Amino acid sequence: MQLELTAEQTRFQQAARDFAATAVAPRAAEIDASDRFPAGLVSAASAQGLLGVTVPEAWGGAGRDYVSYALAIEAVAAASATLGAILVVNNSLVAEVLQRFGTAEQKDRWLVRLASGRTVGAFALSEAQAGTDAGRQETTAAAAGDGYVLRGRKVWVANGAAAEVAMVFAATGPAAGGRGVSAFLVPTDRPGLTREPTADPLGVRGLGCVDLRLDDVEVGAGALLAGPGRGFDVAKWALDGARIAIGAEALGVGQSAFEAALGHARTRQTFGHPIGRYQAIQWQIADSATELEAARMLVLRAAAAKDVRERITLEASMAKLAASEAALRAADRAMRILASAGYRRGTVVERLLRDARALEIVAGTSEAQRMIIAAQVAGGTGSR
Ligand SMILES: Cc1cc2nc3c(=O)[nH]c(=O)nc-3n(C[C@H](O)[C@H](O)[C@H](O)COP(=O)(O)OP(=O)(O)OC[C@H]3O[C@@H](n4cnc5c(N)ncnc54)[C@H](O)[C@@H]3O)c2cc1C
Asked: Which CATH class is domain 122-229?
């Protein structure tokens, strides 16, 4: 078993780390405070090949493997979870999906623009009553002429404020549990489509989350992705990739929290010694280091599996579950170790704690991941 990165993977990781340190980190606090989508930074990321990391160069991407993609997302997210999430949505939930399921016409129209960063894409699955229970889609797409008319409302559509195209999931048939759901590529300038910013999110602020209203939005037959009734196959495939990438993102957040805790443990003195000399603090440092490294192995293993296999549902859910929960614990311990030095609006650690909590929800909560893992290893019901 080979556990070393290749020279090429290491180079790509280092380039992403350099970009994160010089271009992203200085902007992270302002993106969080303003909750504004960082369009300029997204353009800068596209120049680094980060908008379509695994998409072939012929379609405008960087043509890298999934391990390289995971390494880059971890590096970027260590500086800004928001930019990390923007990249994950565009890469895993839109560009890769188009690469896998799109027709030549759909790729010509959208993939080059998405993978080269000329626009970003959004993924609109969740509805007010359909989060974990994603099969309960109330958005409908009725056949009309040689196209469809979409009607409904999507919530928490990340990248939605800036996206030129949204992958919208809608019921095209009455079949239960997602079997009657289809996926559509909907240009966001279609008449009847309106976007409202999601009110004041707690973390990953600046992600451009919107509620998407579809009031009789007409699209042509060419907007249908992968065929009628295949929307849930598309969503599940997309979410597998996104879970690896959200896991990588969580590692970046957790690692930054860990490093903040370590720095404080070395410098803060009580009773004449740095607090890092006390075993109570050392054990917290040891637990965060171990849990993050264990999660990193699962994320990289899942990414390596995705490079060679079509379905990696079990590996992806395990990676996402382990990494997002490890990051949340690392951020919580960092807050504990910084104590009053962290417990103030605008500190790095309070931002990381809010961001880590979001990563435990997006692309399926920890409970949803456990349902999927249980279904895979022991049989049972699986949702998202
Ligand atoms: C920052 C952010 C960005 C997002 N971006 C997107 C996006 O781009 N596109 C998109 O489509 N969606 C997006 N979402 C929505 C996200 O996918 C959902 O919030 C998530 O799937 C959970 O759904 P819910 O919030 O409706 O919670 P619910 O489904 O209402 O769940 C509530 C609680 O019950 C638990 N629960 C539910 N069912 C079960 C069960 N059977 N067994 C045990 N526990 C259960 C859940 O784990 C959770 O703890 C985003 C959300 C956030 C916070």
From this structure: mainly beta
